[in-house]
Structures are given as structure tokens and as C-alpha cells.
Predict the structure of Cutinase.
Amino acid sequence: MMEKTNSFYSARKMAILIVMVLALYAPAKDLFKLVNTWFAAETIRIVDVSFGNHLPWQSQQSNYLTVGQNAQSNLSIPQIIYTKLQLSNPTSAAKTYRKIWLNFLHENGDLEYTTDYVFYNADTRQRLIGNSIELGPNSHIDVIAAHRFIPSYKDTRPVSMSVSWEKPNLLRDSACKYSLVNNSSNTFHHQCND
């Protein structure tokens, strides 16, 4: 009889423990999501880049140079640089991306950037009005940005490129840097040197 009572209490303790674990699962999961949203920040990722004066989707590609061919030597002449950008907003509030610039770092530490750009819808290829994008909470979008690049330094070529944007506090945030010397290949979006 005593054995039966002990096994009953053991089963009851096990059931209470399982109910407690299940009861704590949802609040723990919500707390984990809340902590993630506190540390989440909006980002811009360079998906693809094309150098030259033609739109990436045009069939004539004689003046169109992709990163995998020879990006560094091509950056010595004025041109339009088309970048496919993925804007991500993992936060729970809408974010605005303003003044999206391409930054080019030279070996000697000189920095040049492009401030003149136009956005295109990546799906419809229509030109978008304005120079900023507001992105809703927990979403992402792909856009094509056409930046006008005019080299500032005559005898040097940039070694890395990054994208930066203005945050609401007027400070600039930037994505990771992409090497234009060694890492230019077809999987451009996987090359990131923090």
C-alpha cells in the first residue's frame, strides 16, 4: 500500500513539474523575443553590384562590368554604380532609411562616398520617388540604387566598399565592408569583413 502511495505522489510531482514547465514556456519565449527586439537594429545588405552606365536588367552589356570581372580597375572612371540593396527591419517599429551612400575606402585611409542616387523597385524596375525609404516593422525589401560615382583621387583606386545611412539621431550607421581587391566574385553578398 505504501508503494502505491509513493508512486502516486511521484506521478503527481511529475505532472506538476510538466505543467510548470509548460506554463513557463510561453513567458520565457516572449521574454526571449523581447530581449531580441531590444538588441535588433535595422540593416542594409549589399546583395549585388554592377559597375558601368547601363541598368543591370538591360540586355546590352558592353559597358556593364560585374564585380566578378574587375571591379577595382573600373573604379578609376566616372560611372553609375547599381547596387541591389536589401533593407531589413527586425524591430517592432517602422524605420526610415535616409541618405543611403556608398563609401569607398582607399589603401592610404582616404574615404570617398557617393551622395547622388536614385531608387528603383527591384521587381517592377520602376523609378521610385524620393531619397528615403520607410520600412514597416519586422519586414525587409529589396531595392536597386543607382549611385553616381565620380572618383575624387586620381592615382588611387578604392580597396573596399560599404553602404551607410543616416539614423534618426543624425549619426551615420554602416554595414560591413566589402573588399574590392581580393574578394570580388559571384557570391558578393557573402563577403563581409567586419
